[in-house]
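can u do me a favor
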């Protein structure tokens, strides 16, 4: 490592430490006292986003001119990791969409006018955002989507529906994927910055899930919704290209959450097995417990090493779609397996709401499904190896 690299790395570590202290104080004061109730209510108040914005936690790695901290990309990932480590997966999932996915779409693809209008409001929490790609009959099959946008003078007329949209019911602006050329397959997809206050937009009932209860997950409807032509994000017909360009960061964020969440589950389990007694000794003294936890720790550290490798590649703009697929596949499958092993060591108590490990178990399951299922990740990896 060169001297310059060492200096930069030290500065980055100091920045992360400073932000981490702030994030942990914020979570302790503003989130943890209320989180259990939000989970029971299956609802997180919209004001939470204003509070996070006031604390400087939103869009931390966006340029300073948008009213943000202009911190490193690593800081944004650290915030998600800490949320998940503390069992706040619902919050982390919404945060990932707003700050780690939608904001980079705008920064990398948007016009100066679009960035100047939306990013400052997103940084304060005045505007909450979502990304709407999945449809009732088209998830990873982007070419099969039915939502369409037809040019009409200085507007587009948007029709269709989306489902399983994180932040969907509360979002003020949504990046919507829609067909502008129905005959062109994936090459006919475009992206739009949709202001949800415009006529023609509506939502269904909030979708209740087996986990991540307080995460807002919605069904969206667009009925002859007239949106201005300048709501087009990037160029018409290049939506699929943009999705492929931005998906690696989304999947990297899922891996970060997986590793934070797995670490949190492991911490809870170590604490439990060193206190819980059975047959005259602590559960942690049984060989099975020790071997299971040793395996968990090893798999976690292997995934952490893979994450660090690919975060470094991402920072150099060298991370590929295949890299992201391998990372998400490895980290989220590890997360689901590890949380399952941890819950088992709690015995019957692990299956009760009284013990947080049960929520860790429920919240982890969707990680191998959204942002591209494990099966899709395997296909992406295989294509990189063997072609179509």
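np, heres the sequence
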């Amino acid at each position: 490592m060169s001297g310059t690299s060492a200096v930069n790395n030290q500065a980055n570590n100091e920045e992360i430490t400073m932000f981490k202290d702030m994030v942990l104080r914020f979570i302790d004061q503003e989130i943890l006292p209320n989180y259990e109730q939000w989970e029971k209510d299956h609802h997180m108040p919209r004001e939470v986003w204003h509070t996070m914005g006031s604390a400087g936690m939103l869009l931390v790695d966006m340029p300073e001119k948008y009213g943000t901290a202009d911190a490193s990309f690593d800081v944004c990932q650290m915030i998600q990791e800490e949320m998940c480590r503390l069992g706040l997966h619902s919050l982390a999932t919404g945060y990932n969409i707003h700050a780690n996915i939608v904001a980079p779409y705008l920064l990398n693809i948007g016009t100066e006018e679009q960035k100047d209008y939306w990013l400052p409001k997103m940084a304060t929490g005045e505007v909450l955002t979502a990304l709407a790609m999945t449809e009732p009959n088209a998830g990873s099959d982007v070419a099969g989507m039915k939502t369409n946008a037809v040019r009409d003078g200085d507007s587009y007329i948007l029709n269709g529906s989306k489902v399983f949209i994180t932040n969907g019911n509360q979002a003020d602006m949504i990046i919507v994927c829609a067909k502008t050329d129905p005959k062109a397959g994936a090459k006919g997809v475009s992206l739009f910055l949709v202001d949800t206050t415009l006529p023609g937009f509506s939502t269904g009932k909030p979708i209740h899930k087996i986990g991540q209860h307080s995460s807002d997950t919605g069904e969206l409807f667009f009925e002859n919704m007239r949106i201005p032509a300048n709501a087009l994000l990037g160029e018409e017909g290049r939506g699929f290209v943009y999705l492929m360009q931005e998906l690696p960061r989304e999947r990297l964020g899922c891996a970060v959450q997986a590793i934070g969440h797995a670490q949190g589950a492991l911490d809870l389990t170590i604490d439990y097995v060193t206190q819980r007694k059975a047959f005259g000794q602590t559960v942690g003294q049984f060989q099975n417990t020790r071997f299971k936890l040793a395996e968990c720790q090893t798999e976690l550290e292997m995934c952490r090493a893979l994450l660090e490798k690919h975060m470094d590649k991402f920072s150099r703009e060298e991370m590929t779609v295949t890299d992201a697929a391998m990372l998400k596949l490895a980290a989220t499958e590890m997360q689901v397996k590890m949380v399952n092993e941890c819950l088992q060591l709690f015995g019957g108590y692990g299956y009760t709401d009284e013990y947080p490990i049960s929520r860790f178990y429920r919240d982890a399951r969707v990680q191998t499904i959204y942002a591209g299922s494990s099966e899709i990740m395997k296909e992406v990896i295989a294509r990189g190896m063997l072609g179509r």
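The radius of gyration is 21 Å. hope that helps!!
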